[in-house]
User: What shape does this take?
Amino acid sequence: MLTARYIANDKLMPWLLSLTETRQVLAPVQAGGQTLFAPLDENSRLDLKGLADASAKAALLPRCETLFEFHYSKGEGVPSKTELEVRETLPDQDTFLFGARPCDAKGFTVFDRVYDAGTRRDIYYCTRRDKTLVAALACTEPADTCFCNRVGGGPGDTDGADMLFTPVDGGYVIESVTEKGEAFLAEQPLMEAEERKEEARKVREAVSEAMPGGDPLGGTEGEVLRLFDDKEFWGGVAAKCLSCGACSYLCPTCYCFNMTDEVNGDDGVRVRTWDNCMSFQFTLEGSGHNPRDGKAQRMRNRIGHKFSYYPELHDGNLACVGCGRCIVHCPVSMDVRAIVAQARDRALAKEEHAND
Amino acid sequence: MASSIDDLKSAIKKALPELDMVIAWAAGPDPLSHTPLFITDEADVERIEWDPRCSQNLAGYLPGLRGKKVGIVVKGCDARSLVELLQEKLIDREDVTIFGLHCTGAVDARPVRKALGSTRGLESVAVDGGTARFTVAGEAKTLPLAEALQKKCFTCTGADAEVCDHFIGEHGQPPQVTETPTTTLEELEAMSMEERLHFWEDQMTRCIRCYACRSACPLCVCQDHCAAQSREPHWVDQTDHPREKLMFQAIHALHTAGRCTECGECERACPMGLPIMTLKQALNRSIQDLFDYRAGTDPDQAPPLFEFREEEKNIKEREW
Ligand code: SF4
Ligand code: SF4
Ligand code: SF4
Ligand code: SF4
Ligand code: SF4
Assistant: This one.
C-alpha cells in the first residue's frame, strides 16, 4: 500500500458529506431496522457496526438498469410506417462507495472477471466500475456466519477495493490500494498517518486470528461436479429450500440478469434486472420446458456455479466471498458452508467406494 | 420445556415407522436460528429442538409432499395454516400426523441479533414472565417481549395447536405481554390516504423483488406460475418502481384474502424487514366484518371467497 491517512471518528461523517458535493456517496445507513447501502445525506444514520443486511453489489450492478430508452412514432408522410428512436443511457455518476466490507469488495472481482473480460466488456458495468471508488472497511467483529477466511479472503483484505479503512483507537487509518485510490487520497485534506500503519496492521491481524477456523471451501470443483447426477444428494439438500431466491439477491457475487422491454404507450425502456437461479423462470424456455425444473436442480446450479463452474473458468477463484448473508437471511436457515462440506464428503465417500 | 421436548421425541419415535417422514426443527447455522429438519431415520430424532427459536411454519411443505405419509410438528399459528390447507383440500387429513405444541412465543431473529450485539456462544432462549431470556456464553441477558418477539405473537389467537393427533406438553395461553408495541396497522389508520401511499412507496423502495414473501407463504399455491413474473398477461413490469412492487403486494394480499391466518411467514421471510403482513391484516379485518369469518379455525368450514351465495348476509347488494 502506498499512502496512509488518518481520520478521527467525529470527522468521518462531515468528511463524507463534503464528498457528496462532487459525487454520490453510498454508505451503510439504517433504514427501517435494516442497514443498507444508500446515498448518504445529512439525515442519514451511518451504521458501521457490522455487515450491512444487503450487499453493496447494487452500486455496480443495479437491481434494475435501463440499457436504453425507445420511442415509437408515426412515420413522416407515410402514416402506416412506424419509426423507432433509440436513446443510449450510460451511467454517468461518480460514486464513492464507503463501508463495503472486504467480502463485499472482493465480490466485485467476481464480476470483473465476467463483465470486464478482455474483448467482452459490458459497457454499463465497466463505466460504473470506472466511476466508482471502493473504500473498504476492515471488520472488527465478524458474525457467526462470516467465513471469508474459508473462501480465500479475510476480514482485512483489499481485493476489489481502492482503499482500506481500518478502525484504530479514535478513528480510522486509511490506506490506498490502487492508483485510483492513491490519487483520490492525495487530494483529500486528511492527516498523514505513516506512523499508525503498524497499529492498523495489528488490528487486522488480531481479527483475522480470532475468526473461527474450518476447512477451506475452495478446491472442491471436481467433487461438486462429480455429484452432478446425484439426484438423491441434491434432493436431500434442497428439501427444505423454498426456492425463493433471497439468497441470490443478497449475495455480493450473484450476477445473473434478465432483460425485458417495458413499454408504456409509444415509449419504452429495455431494462436489465437481477435474475436468480433459484427461481422457476431462470432457464425457462419459450416452449415451456425448463431444464432446471425443480428446486433440487436449482440448488445444484447455485452451489455448482459458486464452487465448481465459476472456479473452473476463473483460476480457482470461487464465486462466494463468505459474507454469510445467504445464511442469515434464508427464511429456512440453509447453510451454504454445510452444503459444500457435505458435497465434498459425499463425493469422496463415493470415490472410495468405487475404488474398493 | 425440557419435558415437552422429550415427550415430543418419544411420540415421534413411536410414530415414525408408519410414516415416510416427520418434519420438525433442528439447531440452525447461527445460534439464534433453528432450521427445518426432515426426519426419515430414528437417529435424526435426537437432533430435534423445540424453543422460541423454532420460527418456521413447517405446514407450507405439506402440499408439495402430497401422497406421502408425513408427520409434522406445529405451534398454534402453524396449526391454523394446517386447518386452512385442509379446508382448501390441498392436503389430506388421513396422510398427515400432527404433533401439536404449546408455544410461548417465537423470537424475531433480526432485532434480537441486533439487540444482543453478539450471539456467539448463545446457548438457550426462553420466554417466561413477560421477558425473553437468553444465555450468551454463560451470561444471562433479558429483553422485553416487545423487542424480542415476532409481531404476530402480539395478536396470537391461541398458542396451542388446536387441531392435532398428539398434543405434547401442557396447554397454555399466548405470551402475556404488558407492553404491546404499536402495530403498523394502527399507525397507518392514523394516516391520510396520501400518507399511506407515501408510507408504502417508501417501504417498497427497499423491496428487492426476491418474492421470499410469496415463496414462504404456506397458502401460495401458484408458486412457479405467479402473476408477479408472468409476461403474459403482464400484470407487473420489471422496473424498480415502488408502485410496481406494491402492485405485487396487493396481488398477494388479495390472493390470500379470507385465507391468510396471519402466520407471519411472509413478513419473517422478507430479507428487507418490510411490514407486509399489515396488508393482509387489513383485509382480514374486512373479511371478518363482511363474512364474520376467521381463517384457520374450523377445518369443516369453507373460506368465504370459496363459496357463492346469491346474497351475502352483510353485503346488501340489492339495497344500493
Ligand atoms: S434463501 Fe433459502 S429458501 Fe430461499 S432459495 Fe435461498 S436457500 Fe432456498
Ligand atoms: S454464497 Fe452466501 S456466503 Fe457466499 S458470497 Fe453469496 S451470500 Fe455470501
Ligand atoms: S403467534 Fe402465537 S402460536 Fe404463533 S408463535 Fe406466536 S405465540 Fe406461538
Ligand atoms: S400471507 Fe403471510 S401471514 Fe398470511 S398466510 Fe401467507 S405467509 Fe402467513
Ligand atoms: S420478501 Fe420482501 S424484499 Fe422480497 S419481494 Fe417480498 S417484500 Fe420484496
